[in-house]
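Hi U.,

Before I forget, here's the chain from the pilot set. I'm dumping it here mostly so it's searchable later in email.
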Amino acid sequence: MNLLGRFLDRTDFSSYDDFKKNYKLNIPDHFNFGYDVVDVYAKEAPEKLALIRTDDTGYERRITFGEMKRLTDKTANALRLLGVEKGDKVLMILKQREEAWITIVALIKLGAVCIPATFQLTPKDVAYRCEASGAKLVIAVDEPEIVENVTAALPLCPIGVNAAFVGENVPEGFADFRKLVEMAPEDLDRTVTENDDMMLMYFSSGTTGMPKMVAHDYTYPLGHIVTAKYWQHVQDDGIHLTVSDSGWAKFAWGKIFGQWIAGTAVVGYDEAGKFNPHHLLGAMERLKLTTFCAPPTIYRFLIKEDMSGYDFSTLRYCCTAGEPLNPEVVKRFGEQTGLEIHEGFGQSETSVILANFGWDPIKPGSTGKPSPLYDIDIVDENGESCDDGIVGSIVIKNASSAHPAGLFKGYYNDEDAMSRSWVNGVYNTGDMAWRDSDGYFWFEGRGDDVIKCSGYRIGPFEVESALLTHPAVLECAVTAVPDPIRGQVVKATIVLTKGRVPSEELKKELQNHVKHVTAPYKYPRVIEFVSELPKTTSGKIKRAEIRRKDNG
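Structure:
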């Protein structure tokens, strides 16, 4: 059983053109994901599996929708005991504990605003988020470093911000959230919410400046039907794993909304220490996944391991998003598993915008074709549509006229950011791409990532893809460095594979390799070897940080 038919006129399509033309989403008045999805499953299919929570120690807990309703109702009542009411904002640092899913749904039921946050926040980060958003409560796991950071942040926060902790080691003087939930009553009356009420807020992981507050309304979960059903191809009664912490927008993309509407169980997988590819591969095999999604960084690590000893026979579909996936990674993953990787593109501000949906052949390196929810175009600096083959900005033209489900309401309390991104009802994503004659889109990078060298425009992705075909390269980031003659030249910052040692000879070898794989003028004239690349908490490479360091 799934709920797709309650929100779509049709659920099956014969081709991409059929999908793009005839996909129609029906949005009920007062739609509330907690009551209209979770509670409907609890009533009609209470034993249907909702969540598998596991970790690298082998711990495993399975939660049905019947139990999810009971826990979310009790949690909503516990939140009320902490003073949370409709419209209040709550910051969550819950990693991938069961409480991440339960608390999000409970907040949605209350009409409160959930603000997921990564466990890597410093006290200053926590305080900034509380002050900027107006949050009145922080709920966090009881891990020592997180407890220390949250408690240190509270004196820096506005008066009235409280904290509660989840776990066995709740610090003295703070609420034990699990005990509150355990004692709370099960009965919960429905809170009426409006579709345009704020439901969810993400602090964008932005590669430059302070993070912006991305506000989503109550229709946002329905926008992710396209993400889950038609891009990730999750299956009714299947098991889906998206690799993501609960503090990232990828959690909303891949671990709750569209997946549950489409009827699949989701996996919450935590690792105690540093990421270990073999731990993840072992979990994928043990859980008998049907669908899988991970950022490109994860795939780059997986292909460097021996995957031949793992059983992927239940796995039907694999996806990636977050950054462009280099064709060499797609090729090597396919050689080891027999599976294609379907790339998608979007932002914290959106559901999936562009994707390889599966009807048309994949062109390695392309991020696919537009979602039926969005009117997508490529435009130049004057807002005029670009011809095929010309690089421009990716824009959503129906941002205001129809305001598609899945698109954010706006940047909360940030008129400057809104005026830069929304012009005459068109949302400019700030990302650059070009479109080929078959309608496929090819990502070039953020607008400020494109390199202008001797009159040429060079996208970092193509050079990075060329470098990744060399066996010595594990990861790389391509950026511009100033040059007195050429204006800018290409620089590659490279993490080497195990056993490889930096040398001048290897630099020359890599430069010559790029000259043979792509246009010779794109080769990196500057190469720096590093132990790791700077990344955002969601795993995106911080090219702006590399540029700042070089310019400094």
